[in-house]
Amino acid sequence: MKLVLSLFPGIGLLDRAFEEDGWCVVRGPDMLWGGDVKKFRPPPGKFAGVIGGPPCQAHSFFSALNKHIGNKIAEDLVPEFVRCVDEARPDWFLMENVPQVPDVQLDGYTVTRATLDNRWLGEEQSRRRVFQFGHLGGGRRLEPHTVALETMTREGACLASEGRSGQIVNRRQDGKCHSVHKPRRDFQRFCELQGLPKDFLAGYTVFTSNGKYRMVGNGVPLPMGRAIARAVREALATTKPQEVPR
Fold first, then answer.
1. What is the rounded CA–CA span in Å between residue 235 and residue 195?
2. Which of 28, 52, 188, 223 has the highest local Cβ count within 10 Å?
3. Alpha-carbon gap, residue 25 to 51, rounded angstroms
4. What is the pLDDT of residues 230-244, one digit of tens each?
5. Of the candidates 225, 216, 220, which has an alpha carbon nearest to the alpha carbon of residue 197?
6. SS3 208
7. 142, 228 Cβ separation under 8 angstroms
8. In order of start, what are the domains of the chain with their CATH numbers?
9. Cβ atoms of 132 and 112 closer than 8 Å
10. pLDDT tens readout for residues 56-80
């Protein structure tokens, strides 16, 4: 069984999706468990793939607003993800982040970019993410399967801040984007929208209520993770197109 290294694993929702698809996932250090990715040096040639979603505050839609009101923005750790991939030199890598994240460039890798919204998978939660897929051999693209029709019901994104600040809903009015704050959703409903059992983390009294929202909200929705894991497997199974002689 081939090994996959998970960077910034958090509570491991993306990891779970890849494990369900048959990969053996090895979790790297994470701040949640007292780890420091800056001190991590992955061994070269040991991993078939590297997956992960570096903290996205620096590239998020709300970064400028947070800076304006004096909130501290988390450090951009995309360069650390790139460094770890460069040191590990896997056959492929997958980086998840917000749509505003810049393109990743790594010597030797052909990198393609795919945008996916959780609702395109038939789910209620609207959450759009970008996945950058790099392959040493090139000629492979990430093409997640989506449904023909979205659900009639629509829920806003499950954000890590919902436990503290409530739900943030963005609406366009008079040609401008307005953010509306609503009370936070019940944690069981929050988990359900992320594709998790309603009793997820039940009994884990070591975590605060806000901490549970933060951990689950930082994760990739499980249906999205499953679609991406399948897309990676299918991309790796394709034959590299032959170059046409000129």
1. 24
2. 52
3. 9
4. 999 999 997 554 444
5. 216
6. coil
7. yes
8. 3-152+221-237 (3.40.50.150)
9. yes
10. 766 555 555 445 445 565 789 999 9
